[in-house]
């Protein structure tokens, strides 16, 4: 018995090893789908590039033939599909995202890397702000059930949650940019400015930032508020809350416990939302011509740039899985039921 206890593996370790195996397996499946989907789109991804080469061949045909030969080797055109698949998986696990077709000879990582800070600066504050405000008003609405405040929050949240974020983006642009001319139509900063940390450039970036931020913030806040309202109502109906009220516990303390206990599922949702931000808010970035990863993905889709499409999704899926694993790790530490369930499986 002493020997068994000495070598017993922690349930947390067993749980995390199983989750890691599951995530690696699903990541492999996700990469397979990412490989298949762009190739299911009809069209020739090299058509535009070959047309440009053909036009240049009139001046220097020998050099163009060499470039064409290099292109065929680099993109694996003509190789069996299973060979392309194995090479794609090998590069993906090594972090090599390949070369863009539409922006040849730029590397995919060189196109995505500059877009990541813009997307993070836009989506992380918008997501966290919407999560914070949505949960606060949702908790108060759930606590004040039947009041005018609860009805107002419920109706406005339902409207916002059902409003497509791209439609809201176009509405904001029409009213605040076109009609009132308060904010610019799009872009991340004025074209006549050079990126720097100068106050003029920072203020200009913030001026361009307002409309994309509002479109994401307003469309997300309703969903968080509705979810938190339901969780708070459910928590207030539990036995320990009824018992606390019968003992005359202060309302502020009851609200505090109801809010804190209702918050855990919302934290999971926030972690998953943050894990997927690198995918960008595709249509918002397109509407406002915002230079984030969503806009890069749109450029890849419109030109059938397989490596660029795959590169964005490889990074997006990897960050989503890392966020998922972080949530599992925190849950395994704070909730013993998860550890015990993992031990019994």
Describe the structure.
- 30% of the residues are buried.
- The model has no long low-confidence stretch (mean pLDDT 80).
- It is flat and about 90 Å long.
- Helix 7 packs antiparallel against helix 8 (148-162) and helix 14 packs antiparallel against helix 15.
- The protein is built from 16 helices and no strands.
- It is mostly helical and 345 residues long.
- InterPro entries: BPD_transp_1_N (IPR045621), HAT (IPR003107), MetI-like (IPR000515), MetI-like_sf (IPR035906).
- Residues 116-327 form the ABC transmembrane type-1 domain.
- It is a multi-pass membrane protein.
- It is found in: Cell membrane.
| C-alpha end-to-end distance | 23 Å
Helical content stands at over 70%
Task: Name the poorly predicted regions.
Answer: none
Structural class: mainly alpha
Features:
mainly alpha, 345 residues
SSE diagram, text form:
Elements: H1 2-6, H2 11-40, H3 47-56, H4 61-75, H5 81-94, H6 108-112, H7 115-143, H8 148-162, H9 165-179, H10 199-236, H11 239-246, H12 251-275, H13 282-287, H14 293-302, H15 306-334, H16 336-344
Helix pairs in contact: 2-5, 2-15, 2-16, 3-4, 7-8, 7-10, 7-12, 7-14, 8-10, 9-10, 10-12, 12-15, 14-15, 15-16
